[in-house]
């Protein structure tokens, strides 16, 4: 082990004395590592502190860059934690990292220590080789022909070239430490950008032990465990400058300032996103998210335009709505007495009381609905196919083409390595690697699946509770609003009906339940995913994604599925009503205008509520927490508010930071695809939200969060398959909504099959309502005394109407379904089959016509691979010539590849 000592004075130093012969490979880096993990000394005097500006991303020598920062606070459990920190930091220095400490007297709170970490060239080169980080070896000489015709039209939306493309374009290859002179290394201090540097350091931090090697406990390692047990309070890379001003150090970039100025401002909403700069500063994983979000928002523009046109069509045909005119007229709707909608507390009512809801329903339930449902089925295919092409282009431009294979082979999760004590031979790498036994894997998977099913069952139980609330409270609202159901001169107004009041309150309660269950399940999903011990980070994220999406799918969409496909479908008829689970709660009926308007209400409340609450939570909560946390530092001069303290006061971009963003957008995607036939304005609301979302996410990431550790990702991961699945499901759900929730099919059947309608829809309302004899209504279903309106006279009014197609009283098949019912059902099923086949046929044809990878990208990938091989070959040839020349064989003309099967030293021997 190493003995760590402190040195009195202004700066704390570390003296490393190797005693282990196996750890003597990097002594040159141990001797000058600045740190203090033993005794802690006071910092510089107040005079020195005033002279020295701490707003810097370099060590005190102004040369070595701070690649990572650890912070900790001494507490009552300090001895154990101090021992862990001492061993952990000694092991970090043991692998070549350089440390420098800031004493607690230097911090604003007077109790926080900061350990600054610098990775020298030798460490960076070693681990860049291990991680196969791609670096430039030659300037890209392939001409870029991606300019589109009439490109000048996009000039107002462009950003400056230095912002859009902050780095030159190079051919790249995985770094090989033994061939370092092959790569374009002008300056070793700047060759690896900060994003790669902090990625390498975090890789080391995640695998470094905090125990002695002889202890043999493989589980005791990694910064994540040290953060969880409180040994350290934070671990993060530094932002390069303050977001509102450029760095004063000429050697430091000001990418954060550029991002804030050109990307995070709301008034930049019409500008393109600087994706290359985002990738350079935050890494490919965050860059690919914003690329996807921006592309999704662009595609939403087309859906929003078409949806708005369909809504305008419904508005312009408002006055041609014959069935609403009949409902509202005194001659038709005013003379139709409807049967009670609930037992005991609901009285008889006239059809014209639903006049307003009928007009409102026409805005969304018209001929354009069918066209829009078909259009969205095609739109979602175009969106997914064009995104694949965009993603393929980014994979090439960002050197991610071969990333998935590297991810699977090299980057095992530290938790997996620590908890899997068994070892087996990897057939690909021919190296021993940890593995999880099949029995343990099956047991953990079964437990995980059972937990997911338990929570999904809990959601379904909550939804059933909301349905029971709807059934129970409807009678109460009907009793309270019985006057509003009979007259236009009521206190609550003509627009509030028991149906609307029940729907709105139930939707709000459902939204509150959704938020509570989300908060609880998020922690459960992380726990059960950790319990499964996934092998790689990619596998971990995919498993967590599936669990969270299954939960969110049921949580957000179950109420919409109920209204769309179950409400009003299993009601029965007067005298033979259906009840919920045999209770005294009668199943809900649809309004005579249909359930579509209620589905629209449910969709608007849940979708809009989620988006508004999400934006408030994302923007306001971090800002308030940062404002409160930095309240002391605001009174200090800038030169005394250190860069590491500024970032320490920011919020952590946690494990689920990007995951939550994806989940929010995918749930929104479900709302605008699965149920879009009920609300054509949904894409417009989503477009407005996403324009704000892009800038809110950019603003909070740039100003309110610590800089995340750069990570790679070649795609949006499991979300791609989820989007594909939802695209297929959306065709089915919209076909069923048009067929069974909308009144479109019954109207079309009446229009073309009933000669009395004569294409004018006159008489449709009377045709769609069945007749029931009031005297046959059982006592348990009859309204209580005083519940009926004043105009109701049982001696005059002997029948009531209800929404169905059944034979009237006195018919030999009274109360059985009429032939018209079966005609309509056949038409609905035929419509579903035709619509699904047409849309799926177009979808598959479009997907076949549009290749996933552009031909230009394929050619560039092949060209780059060819050049990499050629330049590597030429490099080896030149290297061989130099070696031969140094050995005095200047006249040797032996081709270096004549003995391809021989090792290099044998090939040299043969050549000589």
TrEMBL record:
It is found in: Cell membrane; Membrane. Residues 58-275 form the Anoctamin dimerisation domain. Residues 1-54 are annotated as: Disordered. This is Anoctamin. One of its GO terms (cellular component) is plasma membrane. It is a multi-pass membrane protein. Its main location: membrane. Residues 278-864 form the Anoctamin transmembrane domain. The chain crosses the membrane at residues 289-316, 367-387, 452-480, 500-521, 669-692, 722-741, 829-850. The keyword Protease does not apply. One of its GO terms (molecular function) is protein dimerization activity. InterPro entries: Anoct_dimer (IPR032394), Anoctamin (IPR007632), Anoctamin_TM (IPR049452).
């Amino acid at each position: 082990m190493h003995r760590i000592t402190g040195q009195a004075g202004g700066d704390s130093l570390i003296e490393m004395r190797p005693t282990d012969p196996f750890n003597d490979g990097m002594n040159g880096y141990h001797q000058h590592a600045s740190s203090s993990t033993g005794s802690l000394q006071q910092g510089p005097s107040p005079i020195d502190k005033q002279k020295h500006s701490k707003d810097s991303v370099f060590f005190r020598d102004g040369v070595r860059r701070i690649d990572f920062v650890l912070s900790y606070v001494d507490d009552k459990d300090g001895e154990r934690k101090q021992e862990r920190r001492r061993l952990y930091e000694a092991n970090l220095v043991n692998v070549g990292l350089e440390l420098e400490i800031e004493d607690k007297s230097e911090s604003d709170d007077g109790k926080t220590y900061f350990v600054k970490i610098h990775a020298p060239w030798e460490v960076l080169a070693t681990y860049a080789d291990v991680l196969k980080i791609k670096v430039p070896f030659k300037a890209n000489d392939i001409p870029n022909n991606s300019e589109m015709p009439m490109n000048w039209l996009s000039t107002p939306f462009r950003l400056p070239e230095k912002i859009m493309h902050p780095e030159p374009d190079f051919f790249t290859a995985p770094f090989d430490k033994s061939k370092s002179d092959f790569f374009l290394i002008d300056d070793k201090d700047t060759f690896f950008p900060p994003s790669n540097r902090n990625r390498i350091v975090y890789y080391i931090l995640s695998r470094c032990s905090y125990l002695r090697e002889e202890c043999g406990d493989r589980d005791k390692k990694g910064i994540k465990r040290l953060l969880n047990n409180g040994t350290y309070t934070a671990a993060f890379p530094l932002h390069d400058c303050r977001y509102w001003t450029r760095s004063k150090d000429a050697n430091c970039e000001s990418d954060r300032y550029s991002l804030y100025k050109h990307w995070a401002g709301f008034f930049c909403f019409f500008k393109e996103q600087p994706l290359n700069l985002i990738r350079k500063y935050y890494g490919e994983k965050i860059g690919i998210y914003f690329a996807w979000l921006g592309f999704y928002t662009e595609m939403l523009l087309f859906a929003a335009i078409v949806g708005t046109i369909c809504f305008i069509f419904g508005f312009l045909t408002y006055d041609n709505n014959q069935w609403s005119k009949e409902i509202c007229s005194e001659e038709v709707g005013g003379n139709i007495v409807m049967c009670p909608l609930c037992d005991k507390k609901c009285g008889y009512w006239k059809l014209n009381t639903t006049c307003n809801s009928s007009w409102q329903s026409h805005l969304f339930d018209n001929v354009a609905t069918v066209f829009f449902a078909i259009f969205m089925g095609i739109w979602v295919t175009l969106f997914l196919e064009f995104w694949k092409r965009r993603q393929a282009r980014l994979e090439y431009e960002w050197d991610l083409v071969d990333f998935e294979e590297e991810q699977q082979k090299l980057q095992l999760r530290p938790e997996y390595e620590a908890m899997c004590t068994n070892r087996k031979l990897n057939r690909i790498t021919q190296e021993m690697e940890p593995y999880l036994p099949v029995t343990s894997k099956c047991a953990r998977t079964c437990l995980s699946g059972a937990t997911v099913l338990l929570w999904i069952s809990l959601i379904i139980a909550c939804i059933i509770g909301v349905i029971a609330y709807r059934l129970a409270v409807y009678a109460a609202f009907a009793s309270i609003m019985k006057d509003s159901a009979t007259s236009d001169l009521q206190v609550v107004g003509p627009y509030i009906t028991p149906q609307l009041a029940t729907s709105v309150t139930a939707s709000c309660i459902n939204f509150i339940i959704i938020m509570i269950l989300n908060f609880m399940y998020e922690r459960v999903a992380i726990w059960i995913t950790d319990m499964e011990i996934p092998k790689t980070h990619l596998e971990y994220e995919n498993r967590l994604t599936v669990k969270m999406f299954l939960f969110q799918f049921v949580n957000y969409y179950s109420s919409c599925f109920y209204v769309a496909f179950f409400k009003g479908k299993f009601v029965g008829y007067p005298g033979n009503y259906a009840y919920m689970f045999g209770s005294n709660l009668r199943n809900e009926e649809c309004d005579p205008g249909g359930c579509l308007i209620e589905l629209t209400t449910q969709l608007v409340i849940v979708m809009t509520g989620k988006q508004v609450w999400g934006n408030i939570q994302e923007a306001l909560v971090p800002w308030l927490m940062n404002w409160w946390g930095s309240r002391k530092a605001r009174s200090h001069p800038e030169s005394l508010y250190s860069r590491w303290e500024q970032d320490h006061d920011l919020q952590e971009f946690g494990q689920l930071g990007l995951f939550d963003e994806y989940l929010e957008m995918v749930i929104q995607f479900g709302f605008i695809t699965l149920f879009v036939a009920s609300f054509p304005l949904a894409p417009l609301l989503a477009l407005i939200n996403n324009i704000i979302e892009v800038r809110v996410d950019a603003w909070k990431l740039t100003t309110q969060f610590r800089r995340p550790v750069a990570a790679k990702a070649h795609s949006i991961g499991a979300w791609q398959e989820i989007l594909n699945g939802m695209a297929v499901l959306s065709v089915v759900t919209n076909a069923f909504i048009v067929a069974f929730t909308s009144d479109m099919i019954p109207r079309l059947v009446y229009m073309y099959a009933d000669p009395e309608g004569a294409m004018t829809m006159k008489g449709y309302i009377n045709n769609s309502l069945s007749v029931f004899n009031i005297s046959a209504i059982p006592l348990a279903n009859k309204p209580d005394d005083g519940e009926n309106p004043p105009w109701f006279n049982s001696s005059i009014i002997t029948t009531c109407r209800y929404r169905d197609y059944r034979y009237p009283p006195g018919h030999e098949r009274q109360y059985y379904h009429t032939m018209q019912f079966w005609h309509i059902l056949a038409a609905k099923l035929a419509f579903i089959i035709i619509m699904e086949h047409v849309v799926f046929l177009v979808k598959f044809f479009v997907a076949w016509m549009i290749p996933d990878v552009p031909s230009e990208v394929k050619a560039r990938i092949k060209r780059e691979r060819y050049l990499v091989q050629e330049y590597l070959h030429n490099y080896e040839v030149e290297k061989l010539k130099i070696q031969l020349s140094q050995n005095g064989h200047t006249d040797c003309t032996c081709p270096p590849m004549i003995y391809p099967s021989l090792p290099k030293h044998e090939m040299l021997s043969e050549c000589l």
